[in-house]
Amino acid sequence: EFWDTEFSSESILKSTMNDFICGQYNRPFLESFEETPMLVAVLTYMGYGILTIFGYLRDFLRHWKIERCHIAREKEEQRDFVPLYQDFENFYTRNLYMRIRDNWNRPICSVPGAKVDLMERTSRDYNWTFEYTGRVVLDVINLGSYNYLGFAENTGPCADSAAEITMKYGVGVASTRQEIGNLDRHEELEKLVAKFLGVESAMVFGMGFATNSMNIPALTGKGCLILSDELNHASLVLGARLSGSTIRVFKHNNMQSLEKLLRDAIVHGQPRTHRPWKKILIVVEGIYSMEGSIVRLPEVIDLKKRYRAYLYLDEAHSIGALGSRGRGVVDYFGLDPCDVDVLMGTFTKSFGAAGGYIAGKWELIEYLRSHSHSAVYATSMSPPVVEQIITSMKCIMGEDGTTIGCDRVRKLAENTVYFRRRLREMGFIIYGNEDSPVVPMMLYMPAKIGAFGREMLKRNIGVVVVGFPATPIIESRARFCISAAHTKEMLDRALSVISEVGDLLQLKYSRRRIQPSLSLPCDDIVFEDIDD
Amino acid sequence: GILHGHEKLPELQSGNCSVLNCRIILEINMASGQQWVLVEMVQAFYEAPAYHLILEGILILWIIRLLFSKTYKLHETYKLTEKEKEDLIEEWQPEPLAPPVSKDHLHLNYDLVTGPPSHKIILNGKECINFASFNFLGLLDHERVKEKALASLKKYGVGTCGPRGFYGTFDVHLELESRLAKFMKAEEAIIYSYGFATIASAIPAYSKRGDIIFVDEAACFSIQKGLQASRSFIKYFKHNDMDDLERLLKEQELEDQKNPRKARVIRKFIVVEGLYINTADICPLPELVNLKYKYKVRIFLEESMSFGVLGEHGRGVTEHYGVNIDDIDLISANMENAVASVGGFCCGRSFVIDHQRLSGQGYCFSASLPPMLAAAAIEALNIMEEDPDIFTVLREKCKHVYKALQGTTGLKLVGEPFAPALHLQLERSSGSRDSDMQLLRTIVDYCLERHVALTLARYLEKEERFLPPPSIRVVVTIKQEKEDIQRAVSCIKEAASVILK
């Protein structure tokens, strides 16, 4: 009998959800994560197995001084201290990461725009140390920087106004917002951010990472519950941890999982004491930077309203990059920004600057002004950085009297759709949402991480490759970030090279046929479709 | 089946061939009577009727099920019906996300700076001499620094659009890191894009759950956050009290002797500040180094207030005391005070520092420092290296201010004579922290009226582990001339005598 009631109520719930989805989404929500082919998965595990065996072998050789050891050593007087690192901590770094280390931290010596100049470097000891040859690899097509709207520029209105402010203000502030570092420029920026987002008030901080990790603790504390998406960024995880709240994790973008946690939390209260939670904060991101997925915001907002939870939305990657007006994921779904309690975002990406903001109701921001760790203890934002944000934001808003900003937002959307479609047609497995400018392409095998990065660079294209621990162990991937600054020629050149390297390394894993049409009816939401 | 074996003993002789064979083999191998029973059991098994075996099989399965099923489902009796659940959900009322703040709350009214926060500062519309920004060396509006920042802006733009790992490493970052290492005479340096995040990321990169950190009670807030993020055991010792620290270290040593196996993996750290921002005094570094080797504990030193201030060449506390920098495991400082740019850095031996490039959260997961800010820091280092006299000038000014501020009615000057950021505390508290703050604020406002910019030291009162008493910051910079200092000091004294009668 018990099971019956449970079952029926759940099915009712589901059907209401579906009706609701139909009403909430104003466009098809196409998101896919094609299943890893079985053979590929097996081979990937084998790859790691072989790497591990060789790792142990080489550790053995290093131990007996047969192989030269390049690892920095503890100083002689401190040899009898407790070791600073556990041996196994570094096994992965020493034996796997070191082999393909040349794919990361590639130094650049130009604007991180659509094309970028890299400093050439070589290694004579298999990546343990690098030497700079002094040569520069010119005009590498940049598919790695988060330069979504192309505001990473050294000429034009943004650079000009930032230059002017540099000469007028200098670059430092040397005090905190609460003491004597509250500049007129900061206040102007905050008013502009609030206006841009369509909310009452906003506050800005000097570092995006710290915006999360230093403000979540001001909002929740002991006796509060944080419901966090499993793929949330490290800064959100750190902030949640520092807050002292209880943290529960729901499956990535899975609304059933979130609802279950919400219901259970309210019904059962805090563990052991069974007191009701003081408050529940749902923490999600707009675009997930490793998956390329977009949060199911309409459903999240419905859930948060139904269960009276609060919503913290991190728009680090989505602000500027999504929505017809560039106002982020809220704009993308055509929702009311006031339905999100805490709007957070960064200026690093779309605005080509640095730092982050939190925006929302007047009371919230006033509270943060007095309780944010950042406002009290951290040096406030550098004036030229503030100026860069003001100018680029005004440009997106069209307040500079041009349509440049508007055009860039549109161009980015076009580029994204085009690039994703072409990759899919070529037969790569591409993760994420059709409209997300973050495009993860699956590589799976550890050896292909390094090979792909290197082969692309040989052909003058800079890409980002990521593997464990940033992704699940078998889901290594390359990640392309599309920019409005990319021209069609650049994208076509990049695509043909990707296809070429893809053939070379056999990366065209997809077993799915290309859907002929994208115009699906509203209720045809592809939800983690893994059928093939 | 066991019990039935005995009953069937007489039937043994009629056993079939294979059982007999088996029996013979067993007989050869075994000698005692005990083993006979075993044989009989096997025999009985063969001979038992099918229904019996099935029944016994079911019994065994039943026992297994009983063993593995949860004995007593307590919560099942409390299972709520859907209706009850809905009611509970309906009933629940959360606290507001942000508690309402009263409009007259002290913190809310930020002082507004119009224009650059340099030596001359326009604060709330009044042009003042700046005695509040940590711009110790006056590099904030130094022409050369600005020019270099501008040149960098013209080359790289403002933002880096990525973390260090993903095309966010610029040649300027590499140059700044090697310059910092050279300046500090350390093997390696690593830069962060935010001063606060530097030590707060560095501590949890090394110290993990189960490790032990010994910390001075006066440690600043970013250290406290780093400690919290590390989830290690934290042991606070009294401010600058080496005996108290040694007591804790001894206690730990005894503990370790009890459990040497565990002690072999527990890392131990001492975290101190060079010049404490909260108390303006200096840590006894030579004694700390002695304790380090005596008890085999590593030292992390936070030098945001002393880097570019103490020592003949501005290298900080190590140079001030003549301590070998290699004896300190990690030095961290921000580039937001003396260097007057933005960001922070850690330096030390490569063995230690390099680890942060994969484990420092604020390094790996954050966008890198805008190149123009790095360029400004490089130029600031150039100026510091070219003209080490500025450190002497600063020290002289500090001493001058320190001396001049002695004997202020009702106010107590806290700090070392060579510290550039001093605290003025109330000699007698009025009883409540709020009214103390109000009193000090009145003094600050009085000075502001007379064109001297001061500020209250701000803290998160509920978050601080050991909340420092309310105070006014007095910051000395080399830009302050004799007359400026004279004016500020007389202003403060006047204010104190008027307000704190």
TrEMBL record, chain A:
Membrane topology, from the record: Single-pass membrane protein
Keywords, comma-separated and alphabetical: Acyltransferase, Endoplasmic reticulum, Lipid metabolism, Membrane, Pyridoxal phosphate, Sphingolipid metabolism, Transferase, Transmembrane, Transmembrane helix
Record-level GO BP terms: ceramide biosynthetic process; sphingosine biosynthetic process
Source species of the chain: Sparus aurata (Gilthead sea bream)
The protein, known as: serine C-palmitoyltransferase
Cofactor: pyridoxal 5'-phosphate
Every Aminotransferase class I/classII large domain range: 139-498
Leading EC class: transferase
Keyword Secreted: no
Cellular component terms per the entry's GO annotation: endoplasmic reticulum membrane; serine palmitoyltransferase complex
Subcellular location: Endoplasmic reticulum membrane
Gene3D superfamilies from the UniProt entry: Aspartate Aminotransferase, domain 1, Type I PLP-dependent aspartate aminotransferase-like (Major domain)
Source superkingdom: Eukaryota
Lineage: Eukaryota, Metazoa, Chordata, Craniata, Vertebrata
Main location: endoplasmic reticulum
E.C. numbers: 2.3.1.50
Family per record: Belongs to the class-II pyridoxal-phosphate-dependent aminotransferase family.
Gene Ontology molecular function terms on file: pyridoxal phosphate binding; serine C-palmitoyltransferase activity
Residues annotated as transmembrane: none
Pathway: Sphingolipid metabolism; Lipid metabolism; sphingolipid metabolism
UniProtKB/TrEMBL annotation, chain B:
Keyword Transferase: yes
GO molecular function: pyridoxal phosphate binding; serine C-palmitoyltransferase activity
Gene, per the UniProt record: SPTLC1
Gene Ontology terms: biological process: ceramide biosynthetic process; sphingosine biosynthetic process
Protein known as: Serine palmitoyltransferase 1
PANTHER family: CLASS II AMINOTRANSFERASE/8-AMINO-7-OXONONANOATE SYNTHASE (PTHR13693), SERINE PALMITOYLTRANSFERASE 1 (PTHR13693:SF2)
Catalysed reaction, written as an equation: octadecanoyl-CoA + L-serine + H(+) = 3-oxoeicosasphinganine + CO2 + CoA; tetradecanoyl-CoA + L-serine + H(+) = 3-oxohexadecasphinganine + CO2 + CoA; dodecanoyl-CoA + L-serine + H(+) = 3-oxotetradecasphinganine + CO2 + CoA; L-serine + hexadecanoyl-CoA + H(+) = 3-oxosphinganine + CO2 + CoA
Organism: Sparus aurata
Superkingdom, taxonomy of origin: Eukaryota
EC numbers on record: 2.3.1.50
Entry cofactors: pyridoxal 5'-phosphate
Record-level GO cellular component terms: endoplasmic reticulum; membrane
